[in-house]
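The freezer alarm interrupted the setup, so I double-checked each line after restarting. Inputs confirmed:
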Amino acid sequence: MADRSSVPSAPDRPGELVLRGGTVVDRTGSRRADVRVVEGTVAEVAEGIAPGPGATVLDAGGCLVTPGFVDLHTHLREPGREEAETVETGTRAAALGGYTAVVAMPNTEPALDSAESVRNIYALAQGALAEVAVAGAITVGRAGERLAPMAELAALGVRLFTDDGDGVQSAGLMRRALQYATDLGVTLAQHCEDKSLAAGGVMHEGAWSSRLGLPGQPAEAEEVMVARDIALARATGGRVHFLHLSTAGSVDLVRRARAEGVPVTAEVAPHHFTLTDACACGFDPVFKVNPPLRTDADVAAVKAALADGTADAIATDHAPHAPELKDLPFDQAPPGMLGLQTAFALAVTELDLPVERIVALLSWQPAAIARLDAASGGVHGGDVAPGRPANLAVVDPAATWVVDPAALASRSRNTPYAGRTLTGRVRHTVLAGEPVVVDAEAQR
Ligand code: DOR
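Predicted 3D structure, all chains:
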């Protein structure tokens, strides 16, 4: 883990912590148990643990005690757009959302396409409330023209590469990148958007875009790139992770590719299983996002993909934007919406899935894709068992709350869920043994 993490160093770690009265949920199943954490490590998982002298005791009654969540898709905006978010504010929002690790997207200014830029993020993330892993750019400046120094970045621990915000338009360049990625043992994460089809579209192309008179992006703008990259993954053996899939056609392509054994994985974002293109009817740019909100049928398909395992992860695409930009007219405002503090609750509220499945989609499955899990030498998404690093979320699946944009930790306010009552609340978050969120309040 030498270079790649921002895990707090040992002196920051508290002595003993007991999480009392919860139900432990991890890959092995669920059971009623207290959890004792000592010096950053899970020391005991059993019913009726007696806290040692001076121990911090947190109530987990009615809650699930799970491995901390891992977000594959967070825009932290630093460097370059600190008025929208910083590593500090974004990781605070992450911790409040139950995340102990986030993958920072490289579409910063400048882009994260060099060893220096990656080291800068690691430095900014020292002492942050969540570990920050970096997704490096596939191409220099995310310009889609020549490959970034992927080997140098991989040597710093970068395991995911993406030009997110844009897809790699050239199939030839993508194939070459996949060949390098295979040699380096890293994964390419694709933002599937064919510019020649999407160009100028500010929402989904369909009945609503016609009615509103707004230019649309057709579903095929996403699907042709999914199909292309499946073909390239099949040909090269390189691993492709599909970011924020949003259409029925895309998830169907991935379902069939996986059945064939093509090495692809996929994530979906909460807004794509909770909102549709009809939300644009009032021209409120808070509902503008890329890929755009789609139809009811697409939402149903995305939910089905989460249910049948075609989608491996729920990823937020947390995309803060400052009000002076996000309040521009719909066609001019930047795409993107906040996600870190609402993801768990949206999943519990809107998905007809057992909460244990939701936790898998938020925790160990994305941890494996990001290679932040124990199998890759990481400390996230692992079982809640003695000897394991104490990166944990304590979540109440029955608590309800109302989304108040002003109360969010992000520097930005662009949540489309303002005023919505949601079920499912993050109560405590434990990072390397330290309770960084207690009773839904960040501790520093
Ligand atoms: O809506 C989006 N916003 N989609 C993206 O791919 C990029 C993101 C951003 O950076 O704002």
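Quick read of the result. Residues 75, 107, 164-165, 191, 289-290, 317, 319, 334-336 surround DOR (CB under 6 Å).
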